[in-house]
Write a structure and sequence with these properties.
Strand 2 (116-134) and strand 3 (141-156) form a beta hairpin. The chain folds into three domains: 8-85 and 317-344, no CATH class; 100-203 and 295-301; 210-280, no CATH class. Helices cover 54% and strands 16% of the residues. The protein has 349 residues and is of the alpha/beta class. The protein has 14 helices and five strands.
C-alpha cells in the first residue's frame, strides 16, 4: 500500500506500530533521514549503508509521530515566548551578548493535495559577521557583512502563527541581548507587518537584489526588455538606489509615466514600490554600519525546504507536510540531537 494511501491512526498507536522492535536511537536516525531525503531514498540508506531493513512506510509513520511531537514543542515555545516581555533588561553585573543578530523572512510554495500550490513561510535567524570579501565588480578586498550560524523555521499557513514561531526562535537565540539587530525581506506587506510586531526596534532592510529587480523592470518597460538602452538606464539609477535615494527614483518614474502612456501603469506601480520602502533602502549606510543588504540566507532556506517538499511529482497531505516541517528544520539547523531531546520529553498526547 502506498504511503499516501495509508490511514491515520491515533498518534500513540502509530508510535507503537512505527517503533515496534526499534531502539530509540534507531528511530531517531530514521526520523532524521526522513527529514533529509524522500522516504524511499531514506529506506535505501538504512538498508544499504546501515543494513537496517526499515521500510519507507515505517519511516513515514515515524515522521508522522515525531513530527507531531515537534509541532507540539513549537507550540510550547511560541506560548513561552509570547508570555515573556519582548525586551531583555540587564541585571546588575550581567554582560550583554555582543553579537549583532538578524532575521530574514520569505515565502516558498509547496503542492498540497486538494488545495494546489500553497505558500510556505520561512524564517532565518542568524548572527552577523563582518569579514574581508572580494568585491565582484572591482575586485577589491572590502569588509562586508555575512550571515553566519543560521537557524530556520517554517510554517504552512498564515502570518500570525509564523510570526510567533520566528520570534520564539529569535528568543531562543538570545535576540534581546544583541548589540544591534536587523530585519530583511522583500517588499511583501505581510513581512513588514510581522517585523513591526515582533522586531519593531530592528533596522529594516529590503533585500538589495529584490529592489534592483524592480529597478530593472522599470528600465525594461521604458527602454525595451534586455536592450542596451535598458541596461544603460538601469546603471544610471543603480547608484542612486544604492545611495538611498529611492524617493528620487519614485519621482523620476512618476514623471516618466506622464510621457510614456503605454507603460504608465508599470512605472507608477514601481514608483509606489520605491516610495513605500524608501526608509528600508539606505543601502550604503547599512553596509557602512556593518549590516547585510541581501536576504540570500532565507532564500537559500526556501530552496532547502523545497528540495525536500517540492521535488518532481511531490504532493502532500497538509497534515503530512506540517509534520515534516519541524523535522526538516531541525535537520537543516544541525541541532537534531537537541531537538530530539526536547520533543522526547513531551507527553505523547
Amino acid at each position: 500500500m502506498r504511503i499516501a494511501e495509508k490511514a491515520f491512526f491515533p498518534l500513540d498507536q502509530q508510535l507503537n506500530v512505527a517503533g515496534q522492535g526499534w531502539s530509540e536511537g534507531l528511530q531517531k536516525w530514521a526520523v532524521w533521514l526522513g527529514g533529509l531525503l524522500p522516504f524511499e531514498h531514506a529506506e535505501d540508506v538504512l538498508n544499504l549503508v546501515g543494513q537496517v531493513p526499515m521500510s519507507d512506510s515505517t519511516l513515514w509513520r515515524q515522521v508522522q509521530v515525531w513530527g507531531e511531537r515537534g509541532r507540539n514543542w513549537e507550540a510550547q515555545q511560541r506560548a513561552e515566548a509570547s508570555a515573556l516581555p519582548a525586551r531583555h533588561h540587564l541585571v546588575p553585573g550581567e554582560v550583554p551578548q555582543a553579537a549583532v543578530k538578524g532575521v530574514a523572512l520569505d515565502g516558498a510554495t509547496v503542492n498540497i493535495r486538494k488545495e494546489g500550490w500553497k505558500e510556505l513561510k520561512v524564517g532565518s535567524v542568524f548572527e552577523v559577521e563582518v569579514r574581508p570579501t572580494c568585491d565582484r565588480e572591482t575586485g577589491d578586498l572590502i569588509d562586508l557583512a555575512h550571515a553566519v550560524h543560521n537557524t530556520y523555521v517554517a510554517h504552512l499557513g498564515g502570518p500570525e502563527v509564523f510570526g510567533q514561531l520566528v520570534w520564539a526562535e529569535a528568543r531562543r537565540r538570545q535576540w534581546s541581548q544583541a548589540q544591534a539587530t536587523v530585519a530583511l525581506g522583500d517588499g511583501a506587506p505581510w513581512i513588514w507587518n510581522l517585523v513591526g510586531e515582533h522586531f519593531y526596534d530592528s533596522r529594516q532592510v529590503v533585500d538589495w537584489y529584490h529592489a534592483a529587480t524592480h529597478l530593472r523592470q522599470a528600465a525594461h518597460a521604458l527602454k525595451g526588455e534586455h536592450t542596451p538602452e535598458a541596461q544603460r538606464w538601469f546603471k544610471a539609477y543603480d547608484t542612486t538606489l544604492f545611495e538611498g535615494q529611492a524617493d528620487q527614483i519614485a519621482d523620476t518614474l512618476r514623471t516618466l509615466a506622464k510621457s510614456n502612456r503605454k507603460v504608465a501603469d508599470v512605472l507608477r506601480r514601481e514608483a509606489g514600490y520605491f516610495d513605500d520602502n524608501q526608509r528600508r533602502m539606505q543601502y550604503q549606510e547599512v553596509r557602512e554600519d556593518g549590516l547585510p543588504i541581501g536576504s540570500g540566507m532565507v532564500e537559500s532556506a526556501c530552496k532547502q525546504f523545497r528540495a525536500r517538499l517540492a521535488g518532481p511529482g511531490m504532493r502532500w497531505n497538509r497534515s503530512g507536510a506540517e509534520r515534516l516541517l519541524p523535522i526538516r528544520a531541525a535537520a537543516m539547523n544541525r541541532n537534531f540531537d537537541a531537538w530530539w531531546q526536547s520533543v522526547s520529553s513531551l507527553p505523547l498526547n
